[in-house]
Write a structure and sequence with these properties.
seven-stranded mixed beta sheet, RNA-binding, 27 strands, alpha/beta, 23% strand
Amino acid sequence: MSTEARSNFLKTQIQSDLDTGGARQLVTRFPPEPNGFLHLGHAKSITVNFELAKQFGGQCHLRFDDTNPEKESQVFIDAIQEDVRWLGYQWHGEVRYASSYFQQLYDWALHLIDEGLAYVCDLSADEAREYRGSLTAAGRDSPHRSRSIETNRDIFERMRAGEYPEGSRVLRAKIDMASPNINLRDPILYRIRKAHHHQTGDAWPIYPTYDFAHGQEDAIEGVTHSICTLEFEDHRPLYEWFIEHLPVPSRPRQIEFARLNTSYTMTSKRKLKQLVDSKAVDGWDDPRMPTLAGLRRRGYPPAAIRHFCEEVGTSRSDSVVDVAMLESAVRNQLNAEAPRVMAVLNPLSLTITNREKPEVLAVANHPGDESMGTRSVPFTPDLYIDAADFREEANKKYKRLVIGKRVRLRGGYVIEADRCDHDSSGEVSHVYARVVEGTLGEDPPDGIKAKGVIHWVSATAGLNAEIRCYDRLFSDPNPSKAEDMMTLLNAKSLVRLEHAVIEPSLATAAGEAVYQFEREGYFVADRYDHTHEKPVFNMTIGLRDTWSDSRG
RNA sequence: UGGGGUGUCGCCAAGUGGCAAGGCAGCGGGUUUUGAUCCCGCCAUUCGCAGGUUCGAAUCCUGCCACCCCAGCCA
């Protein structure tokens, strides 16, 4: 996969700004509000900001945009930092908080009042909405718009002192109630919130709004390029208005890009919460969730997520990226780095009738990377193979074990099946086969080659394991467009296999270690539930499959 | 019907007046002790539509059309 940086409008613009001296060194920032868990969409934003800083030799800050205490908490602050680090990024300097700038923001609000550019408005929320007008009709001036500077200063200072109840008044910028851009119709700068803040405690009874805070936060930190998503485009004139009318230490610039949407996925916080609350999934870090915690538990390597974000590109057009692209990035990464092992998901007993003594085979850990070495795999007379790998009879396209035919046991001998037993319901319950001598690392001496290769595990030395097979959470490519997404849930998004058997080398697997179970897919030792006594693996992603039972 | 955006292969996406990159998906073929990987090949005479300017247009102009965002004291 190419890590070659492809051109995009952000890089072009930044290069131009750097060339013309608009900025000496690039400074970006990832500014989440600590009110929820990070998901794939955030990963895109994180990658964009950190990679840009890396590419241009600049720096990227992590700043919590914590201006609305009622929705925020320390739990999210901690989780977000862990997720950003897990993704592979380290922000420049200390973690920053919008709340650290509350005093400066307050002083700047006073500055606007003194300049006659802000006023206290006593309209209720409902009245304010009515005065704001509509998309097609201009708004009307608030009756409090012409208060004197002295009066505004006095009331605002009392707001700050906590003298008024919530909702009783707000501070507004005096811009233009008739602007076709509704964000410019005297936007609210401060509202009264008698809420305990996770960082500032009870120091403030008033809190700045996003619009009044964000650009100034950027300016304080020397952020040169404030990169956000398209829905903030209409806010840019306001962002610039504050920068122009306030004595800020630098002049940041806002640039917007299209947020990442992925098919078969949904990243609305509200809907994700619905999935958790309704128990459709097992929590915010369920392996089927698009949260970073979920992707992590699923076994998606951070490098794969980064590559995916790079490959998808950054543009300004609304789009829905095929989730197959993400899956491809994951396979790509794992193919290179995951050691190979064998595990039988649906065990079928197979007895080797011409062997009595156990043997130990040395099997390569990676077919294309000798440096990954070999491991010992016990080969005993009693084995398990997957039920799907045996048929009493089959056509020529079936390249697995068939009575009277040969197949190679991966990493071991070629065997030939002789007969099988059936259970009371007629299902095959036991297969009997023979080793074809002289086939360890060699083709059969008689020239009759094996039809294919199947994986296996010693029944006596193998370990029982729980394997959780995951599939896409939704069966529809566009769940977020649906009236009721719950009807679009994939009923088979989780299949628990309680009786899988894994090869003994896996006894020492560490939590979060990812392996390729040969011929099946990539599986990760669950970071919470996996123990050496009771192994639990999650299916990260299956191997690419260009063959299906319908063809054979 | 106000304002702001976006339209290039099934899905992303480069391209910035000189004659359509790349990835994903798909389809052929080869190698293979994973029906994986890997390797080779195929996959837009055409850039939302219609006009115009130009020797030359996806790129410039005009007019349409479609889709997305905005009326929180959320971010």
